[in-house]
Amino acid sequence: MRLLTLVLLCATVPAVEVLPPKPIILGNLGRYPVGHQSALEGGAQVARAAGAEAGWINPAGVADTAGAPASASASLYAFDRFSVSNANDTYQNWEAYIIPSAVGGAFAMPGTEDNVQVGVFLTQPALWASEVAFSRLDPQASGELSQAVSESSGRFEMIAPGLSLATMATESLAVGLSLVVNYVSYRQSISEMRRSVLITGEVEEVATTSLRRMGYYLVQPSFAVRGDLGAGFNAGVVLSAPGYQVYDFGRVDSTLLANQGPVTISSLHYDEDPNLTWSLPAGVRTGLAYYGEDWAVEVDLRWRASTGAHEVLTSDKPAYVVRRDRSTGENTITLLPGSLLSTANLQTDAPAALGGSLGGHAIITRQITLHCGGWYDPSPVRDGDDDLFTPMNIYGVSVGGTYSTDGTTTFSLGLLGTYGKANGVRIFPDPNDPYGGTAKVLGLQAALTTSFSL
Fold first, then answer.
1. 298/389 Cα distance (integer angstroms)
2. Percentages (nearest 5) of helix, strand, coil residues in the chain
3. Of 101, 148, 230, 445, which one's alpha carbon is 20 to 30 angstroms from that of 315?
4. Phi, psi of 240 (to 5 degrees)
5. CB-CB contact of 407 with 399 (8 Å)
6. What one-character-per-residue DSSP string does 107-140 give?
7. What does each C-alpha distance from 360 to 42, 55, 295, 301, 416 come to in angstroms?
């Protein structure tokens, strides 16, 4: 009863060691820049963002009433080609989805004689979805043949509504505050069916499934300034405090099913209620821009402090093994001690990192403006088997154009491309996992943005 022995052996160790999901999920919060002009200029807008668009990028810019009081940006579609390869195999897939990027508005606070401007915004700065499916034949030296069919899917997203207040401290200096409520969620599903044909002709099957759903609500305040330095130069600085977690929820459900020939079926079931802690890092964003007669260029730097997320899985329900005799249809249920499933830790460490953007625009005619930019977004995590996300350094470029209808309404269309690479990626975090290798992602986004005055 080799396979039944395997199941019972699995039941004598923490179940999370049997099915520890390894998300193939990118957690880069700056993978695609968002905003009316920012999306087309590589995100380089800290020193120039004004009006409604500034609420998310630089709250101090909301005080600049020369900016549009309403703006919106959204991708038409985003296409991703994701691949994992090692010396023996290559797995790849295409994904296509829509990413609403940002909407915002700005207006004068009543009773302040237009001295205080209010900005409201809703952004979705991060979204990642991936599905990887593959099969593999593993001939054994004993003559047995083992086939594994595996599927892995994941989804990560961040939605951030916020409020900002800004005022002109002097004729050339604006100051602002913002408060953002970040909703971060991810969902990971892994399933594997392994079918072995023994020398005796018997067939053994083991099926494992794991579903993890996590979510966090974090509040993050920021303080910002934006000023005119003279001689055509503008500068901006945004200081963000660490995000404070105010609520979390999560669930992990896993099942192991073993089928030995025509006689018996054995299964191991368990679930956990995760205790979660998550934090968004403190950071500094700086920008320096120069305005020419019909053009502008800006360089931004983004520094992120080190931080981490810690997840402790605990079980408040006992695990159990079900053994069913196919000939009689009778089930035998064996409960397992809850202490066997009490702890399992997943740690995500984000070391301090520096990213940046370079972008600008050129006014071609009174109605047409061209934009371009590039950016670098560093990996959100350190590489390692315990990481919740796949480490990926992202490089991107953007090009686009803006058409102004009557001076109060503009429409823009742009293309954004990204490339990222990571080493040591494993579908299943087993030291002997043969599927580890190099992961690459190529992304293409078509963005449509608009701004208008009511």
1. 31
2. 5, 60, 30
3. 148
4. -110, 130
5. no
6. EEPTTTTT-EEEEEEEEEEEEEEEEEEEEEEEE-
7. 9, 20, 7, 15, 15
Block mean pLDDT (10 aa), the chain, length 454? 32 35 68 88 94 92 86 76 68 67 87 85 84 66 66 84 94 95 84 72 72 83 96 96 80 65 54 62 93 96 74 53 65 57 49 92 95 92 60 92 86 92 64 65 87 74
Residue burial 227-264, b: 16+ Cβ < 10 Å; e: rest:
bbeeeeebbbbbebeebebeebebebebbbbbbbeeeb
Reduced to 3 states, what is the DSSP secondary structure of residue 9? helix
CA 62 – CA 218 distance, rounded (Å):
23
Q: What is the DSSP string of 284-312?
A: EEEEEEEE-SSEEEEEEEEEE--EEEEEE
- Look up residue 435 and give its two tokens: 């599927």
Residues 116-155 have pLDDT tens digits of: 999 999 998 888 877 766 666 666 555 566 777 777 778 8
What are the chain's domains?
2-452 (2.40.160.60)
Of the candidates 101, 123, 45, 103, the one whose C-alpha atom is nearest the C-alpha of residue 285 is 45
